[in-house]
Amino acid sequence: MSTHSRPQKKPQSTVRHTRAIQHDRTKRPNSMPLAPQVTEHLTQLLHPQTLGQVAHFQRLGLRERVLTLPVMVALVLTMIWRQIGSATELVRLLRQEGFLWCTPLRVSEQALSQRLRLFPAELFQRVLLAVLPEMQVRWHARTRPLPAVLTWAQARYSQVLAVDGSTLDALLKKVGLLRGTEGHPLAGRMTALLDLGSRLPRHLWYEEDPQAHDQRCWPAIQEELEPGALLLYDLGYTNFTVFRELSAAGVTWLTRAKSNLAYRVERVLGETPQGRDRRVWIGSGVDRQPVRLVEVLVGTTWRRYLTSELDPERLPVAQVAALYGERWRIEEAYALVKRLLGLAYFWTGSENGVQLQLWATWLLYAVLMDLTDAVAERLQRPLAVLSVEMTYRSLYHFTVAYQQGKTTDPVAYLAENADWLGVLKRMRKKPAPASLAPVTGA
């Protein structure tokens, strides 16, 4: 009797989600043009900073052509915001409509494709880095409630930040030098330093190597921190030397503790059935340092945190767990730029082209967060209870209402119709944080 071996199961593709997004983008019908008020809002926020980079554009020796810096910024931002699937369709819309601050233009698809591939991405990065501080000022000028834990933290720390990295998705193999290559090359890796109050990036970095470790970005991250800041990060950034350097620079840090962490208990600061707070020593040699090890029972799982803040009165246990929960905001930011704004679909395989799209997408992310925060102020609700995705998608309904003569103010329209548009989230009840009573005589 012969035996037959079972056929091996084909490994699941790691790029299936990316392919679906790519296919969807190329087949999707064109979206409605933006209402004049939205176009004006984007122009007021971005056009002055774009013009501010024209001198640098000229210093790079770039020739003044039809596709100048202001035109290219308008093109790329519109391509992302309206999720236009190809350069061919972009050329058609440019000829018919014009974009943002640009009047209709006639350009060839070949000229536009070459410009997208070769136009210096650093110009888009400079526009982004010029816009972000202004966005931060706009956020501080607004009055709207914040989550209690962030209100508490901002009263005690000069900055409340989170940092994390994320691998960019697969490139299209049909473009440029990638034709005929094996596998599905990834587009690189990005790292964001996010302000947890405004959810705006303080800084962004790009690494061409998609396998680059998070640790590689530590020197650049440290340069962006100021004394008195609070920094949150996950296990991938565990580095005892950096921990010591952050503490020496006056930066308070908070992270998860690895399951195999080696430590020596110096003192028990507090203990209940739901939590433990201890001062411990970690590291060795010059990196040996005192930290707090905080453990909180959530359901049947113990969650362990490390922090450089040794005073439990300055950073109580309940705030440790609640603050680390806010680190999830950076994961939400990555989901928005990738899934909602389409940073899983790259027009070109060149490093320059990937960066150009990266900086432009984060630029629109900042605009979208600013708009959502303006709606939150109008509603006098925390930004956390508003859906950024539905704010973006509801601009279609605002455009329809504007064309029908029913409204002229996008912020007022989104606020007044926040319930049925889904701009206001349906909130879920969360369990109360565990309390921790101090040990007598500790």
Protein described:
The chain has 442 residues and is of the alpha+beta class. It has a domain of 212 residues: Transposase Inhibitor Protein From Tn5, Chain A, domain 1 (Alpha-Beta Complex), CATH 3.90.350.10. It is built from 16 helices and 9 strands. Strands 3-2-1-4-5-9-8-7-6 form a 9-stranded mixed sheet, sandwiched between helices. The protein starts with 15 loop residues before the first helix and ends in a 21-residue tail after the last helix. The relative contact order is 0.13. The N terminus and C terminus are likely disordered.
Elements, N to C (H/E): HHHHHHHHEEEHEHEEEEEHHHHHH
What name does CATH use for the topology of the domain at 122-333? Transposase Inhibitor Protein From Tn5, Chain A, domain 1
Which structural class is indicated by helix and strand composition?
alpha+beta
**Rg calc:** 25 Å
Overall average pLDDT: 85
At CATH level 2, the architecture of the domain at 122-333 is Alpha-Beta Complex
- CATH superfamily heading of the domain at 122-333: Transposase Inhibitor Protein From Tn5, Chain A, domain 1
Beta-strand fraction estimate: 15-25%
Apparent shape: globular
